[in-house]
Amino acid sequence: MVPVKSFMVPAEKFVAIDRDTSVRRAAEIMKENGIGSVFVSRDKKIIGILTDTDLVRRLVAAGLDSDRTPVEQIMSAPVLKIDENKTLLDANDLMAKEHVRHLGVSRDGELVGLISVRDLVVFLTNLPRK
Question: Which CATH code fits 4-125?
Answer without folding.
Answer: 3.10.580.10
